[in-house]
């Protein structure tokens, strides 16, 4: 099979798909037209699918010969960011942008699916294309798995990629073991007692309570956990008060916890609650928490699948970089690698010699040639995984 020519014949359509998606971004759990567009594209190529999985999720199935099924995931949601790129296909939805490259992920996966569908009679297994909503918020991966996306047929291995503007097109970035941290986000409401700012002794100042608590929370990383066990405790939002001379009755804080294991994440969550209880008791205040319904586990790559990705990259001439340490950022692809052996990796998307804006930035735009590169690595990896499965049988 001549994958190079098939990719080249598909590339122009994949670019158009990418530009359409970039022009029409939708926020998490609102990906209605995005899902419709994906389905229309699958219909045009006679690829069967199931839609409306856990919201706006889609699973398309390319049935080959033999047993075994490989899953490939693309996230489909955008961000609440105003685009400033100035490209002709910039977002037409005010305040919403594909600033994390999910438009590229979708286009790559659709292109990969088109090629696989052309050669399905030559495949020694099946491939499930998983288009996942709500990666940026509630964790659509977990919801799709709960809805059975890894069954019928059962997926034996998963792969996924994420574009990376820090590396050139034609390269990938791998991490063995824990690639991304586990995460649990929280909202905390601190209840005090409102009073006049000139008479703070008549109230309970939740701003002072919050300030004390924020400083104490930082000891979790420096005094509660070993230096060899990285954790992050960050407060990203604090809101309280309406005027300079009014002690408010409440303060709302939002924060995030990160750790490299579920056990450590649970431990530091308990410590946060202990610190909150102790600090509020000192001042006569109280605190209530709202935690993530389903915290993200750490994203742990399987060595065997990573080996196959790395060899696939070598075979097509990609530069392979290795992450020196675990990223404390999180990705809900972790739910897939928790369920089945899998590999998640970064795909370089910067033109040679160029410096791109980072992800989650209104000026981010990826190199369209990375769409071709993404198809190449996904196809090569899937075929290698199938070959390994057929030898095992």
TrEMBL record:
Q: Which cofactor does it need?
A: Mn(2+)
Is Chloroplast there in the keyword field?
no
Q: Which NCBIfam families match?
A: amidohydrolases
**What's a Gene Ontology MF term here?**
metal ion binding
Note the InterPro entries from the entry: Amidohydrolase, Bact_exopeptidase_dim_dom, Peptidase_M20, Peptidase_M20_dimer
PANTHER family to which the protein is assigned, alphabetical: METALLOPEPTIDASE, PUTATIVE (AFU_ORTHOLOGUE AFUA_6G09600)-RELATED (PTHR11014:SF63), PEPTIDASE M20 FAMILY MEMBER (PTHR11014)
- Cofactor binding, per record: The Mn(2+) ion enhances activity.
Enumerate the spans annotated as Peptidase M20 dimerisation domain.
Answer: 186-277
**How is this protein named in the record?**
Amidohydrolase
**What is the organism field in this record?**
Emergencia timonensis
Q: What are the alphabetically sorted keywords of the record?
A: Hydrolase, Manganese, Metal-binding
A biological process (GO) annotation for this entry? Answer: diaminopimelate biosynthetic process
Pfam families per UniProt: M20_dimer (PF07687), Peptidase_M20 (PF01546)
Q: Which annotated residues bind Mn(2+)?
A: 100, 102, 136, 162, 360
